Amino acid sequence: MRIAIIGGGLSGLTLAYYLQQRGVAYDLFEAGARPGGNLLSPLTPEGYQLEAGPNSLLLSAELLELITELGLEDAIQDAAPVSQQRFVLRGGQFRALPGSPPALLASGFFSLRTKLRLLSELARRPAEPVPGETVAAFFGRHFGPEVVEYAVRPFVAGIYAGDPSELLLSLTFPRLAELEREYGSLLRGLARGPKAVRRRTITLRGGVQTLTDALSARLRNLHLGRTVKAIRAVAGGYELDIADLEGAAQSTRQLSDGPAEAYPIFHDGPAEASPAYSTVALAMPTYVAAELLRPLTLPGALAAADALAAVRYPPLTLVYSAYDRAQVAHPLAGFGALHPPAEGTYAAGAIWTSSIFPDRVPAGQVLLTSFVGGAQFAEAAGQPAEQQLAAVHTELTRLYGISGAPRWQGRYHWARSIPQFDQHLAAARAAVAPLAAHGLVAAANWQAGVSVPDCVKYAKGLAERLATGQGVG
Ligand SMILES: Cc1cc2nc3c(=O)[nH]c(=O)nc-3n(C[C@H](O)[C@H](O)[C@H](O)COP(=O)(O)OP(=O)(O)OC[C@H]3O[C@@H](n4cnc5c(N)ncnc54)[C@H](O)[C@@H]3O)c2cc1C
Question: Mind listing the pLDDT tens digit for each residue in 187-222?
Fold first, then answer.
């Protein structure tokens, strides 16, 4: 048995790591010269330690285990305590988001009408989830429109770059569907059900990419700068057509408009002369998987390709703005602020990066990371860089009481950011599942769940299943 893993993001790297631990032969092919996919942590010459992908991680048991095995415990950096406070823009003012249902009832965040609605929700009887219900419909049914507009919409934009009117509850928040089935009332379920343990919010010194760099350094069969162009069915398995990246050795850890930073190739060298693989793990985005599956003559491959091609990844730009502390009137005492679309802002919100991890910027400065785009703010995501930087600075000036020009600004643009867990994704998962019987298995975030802990957990479980011959044909 030899397994091909296509895609060296967090999912593919973690899968390879656990397969290697179990003595399973594999080859991991990554198109880029840099491993890590969405985990990208550029350090600018001015001294700003940025994140282009995940800004912080919720520490799960599996993630801590992986970090520990990789010898990175000392690199763990907890978020500053002040960052437990989160804000939502309402009527042009930042309002602290109450942290619990009782705090919510006591605060003035929601109207009396909505608070009464929250109380009446306690009387709901257990019910089967509504098939195909969206996140917005579910919360609207339980708590009314104000909660959807001022809590759910900004939250879903902030975490998934998504639109709750499109995302499916069953895929996005499966636990809430279970609570409805068992308790009827979400509030009662949350109070009585198994307590969700408050997880540590962390990063790693050098940025989250430290994790994927450390994983890569452990792998014996990682092939960087190798784009898989085709999967061919042969007797006993699959062969791959692979193209080398031109100039891979010069390629970089790079901010899209910024300077390139030379990045080492860890394990350069040709893969074995196209061995036959018993299993192929699809650890790349759906739109790439679609094109690799399309030409295969296997039953179901074409339907899976069509379904995968329909999955949506909204564009998203991260705009970084640094100021001298003295330029900013707002105390920035929190994690950041989300902007409900009803507020009519340019950006979907901003993370107060230097409040969460103060050592990310030179002393005496603050750094705000604004999110432009996503499904609910799509129009602004495609605008030219100068326009985005200027619009963000203008908005930050108004919202935070900023005087003068930024000390520094930069941006990172994702033409396709995060897969949307909507009806298209549900159809894609269903269409891909039967291909496992033919040795083609899904391994990326669109199967695992979006968050870093979800990707780690899924990849570890998949490695176990592949090593023991379960879950594949
Ligand atoms: C802007 C942004 C912010 C985020 N914020 C957070 C956060 O705060 N917390 C959190 O937990 N998660 C966050 N996430 C989600 C998380 O980062 C991702 O879900 C996760 O990193 C996905 O990893 P992956 O390996 O599944 O996919 P990817 O990272 O997309 O990796 C896929 C890899 O496949 C490679 N590839 C593509 N085609 C080919 C080919 N033909 N041949 C070979 N290789 C190929 C690509 O180059 C890429 O490296 C964020 C994501 C984004 C984009």
Answer: 999 888 766 667 899 999 999 999 999 999 999 999
Which atom of ligand 1 is least distant from the CA of 452?
11
**Best residue among 284, 292, 351, 412 to mutate for probing ligand 1, ranked by most atoms within 8 Å of CB:** 284
Mean pLDDT of 39-48: 96
What is the arithmetic mean of pLDDT over 408-427?
97
- Measuring from each residue's beta carbon to the nearest atom of ligand 1, which residues come in under 6 Å? 6-12, 29-32, 37-39, 53-57, 227-228, 283-285, 288, 316, 414, 417-418, 444-445, 450-452, 455
pLDDT (mean) for 150-154: 94
User: What integer is the mean pLDDT of 77-95?
Assistant: 95
Q: What is the pTM of this model?
A: 0.93
Report strand pairing: 279-282 vs 440-442.
parallel
Q: Assign residue 165 a region: left if phi > 0, alpha if psi is -120 to 50, beta otherwise?
A: alpha
Domains of the chain: 2-43+60-75+206-312+420-467 (3.50.50.60), 110-192 (1.10.3110.10), 314-414 (3.90.660.20)
